[in-house]
Amino acid sequence: MSNVHRIMWLDQEIRQNKYPNCRKLAEHFEISLRQANRDLEYLRSTLNAPISYVAVKRGFIYDDMTFLLPNLLITDREKEVLSFLAYKYNNFDGNENSQRIAKLFRNLSNSENSDHIHPVFSIKDDKILLFHKLNQCISNCIKIDISYIVPGGELVKLTLHPYTLYGKSDNDYLIAYCEEYEDFAIFRLDRFKRWSESANTFIMNDSYKPDKYISHMRRKPFKAVLYTNESEVSINNLGDKLTRLEEGLYEVEFYDVDQLIRDLMISNQWNEIKSPSWLKDKLKNYCIKIYDKL
Q1: Could you tell me the domains of the chain?
Q2: Please, is 117 exposed, middle or buried when counting C-beta atoms within 10 Å of its C-beta (0-12, 13-18, 19+)?
Q3: How far, in whole angstroms, is CA 191 from its chain's centroid?
Q4: Contact (CB, 8 A) for 241 and 231
Q5: What tens digit of pLDDT does each residue of 1-33 get?
Q6: Beta pairing, strands 249-254 & 241-246
Q7: Alpha helices for 16-168 (secondary structure H)
Q8: pTM (two decimals)
Q9: How far does CA 25 lie from the centroid of its chain?
Q10: What is the mean pLDDT of the chain?
Q11: Which residue among 40, 58, 108, 229 is least crowded, i.e. fewest CB within 10 A of its CB?
Q12: C-beta atoms surrounding 223 within 10 Å
């Protein structure tokens, strides 16, 4: 049941001078005391209700009985959207304004003064559904089966143990253990062609540290210019964002240098790295190390 019903019940009980408290709310709706406490905090902090605890009555009252609940209370569906927006803004750029908006959306969704132009994100039903389904799989340790587009454009089938969702600017990532790779890896959600929940669960690895995979992702991306004879569709799976500069020239934005090098190694969709020179040198050294092992 949505907390909308519980908030309305609290409001009614207070107006009838019944002095509701966390225990009464929990018993009436058969929820935990922790959830009941969150509902009261939502009433106080998010809806700005002027409530006070009366020790003698062991319950709450309104300091100002003229207070009215907002006409529009947030539905479960709207909470999902707000929760998704909180996640997106929290991971956008570290800007104080973005973090403030993320906190606001978190409060409004009840989930865990500026001329600054705030980022706008594409909100699609399938994207929000994937976000919430993956969160559920993470919480319940449920494996997922995916068809994933690798940088060369090939479609591979993988079984993942999902651990952490993470966003950077326009892209969203899943840190997961891959049974086929036998290691943890970062997967871009927009490269999921198909996915489904598995009937199997997994045991969380206690040694897993998300910062090991997230900390390397800079707030601002690196940029490289590639020359290719291929179409934009063919090279669109390289890096995190692709921009066409002119015929045959594309700018690739990326956060993870090692991941881009691995992508370049298995992709035959590019002909030359125009810049930066340090990326060309790094790729050359990577190839030399492999050659020396042959």
Answers
A1: 3-62 (1.10.10.10), 76-109 (no CATH), 125-214 (2.30.30), 222-292 (no CATH)
A2: exposed
A3: 15
A4: no
A5: 457 778 888 988 999 999 999 999 988 888 888
A6: antiparallel
A7: 22-29, 33-41, 76-90, 96-109, 125-140
A8: 0.48
A9: 32
A10: 80
A11: 229
A12: 15
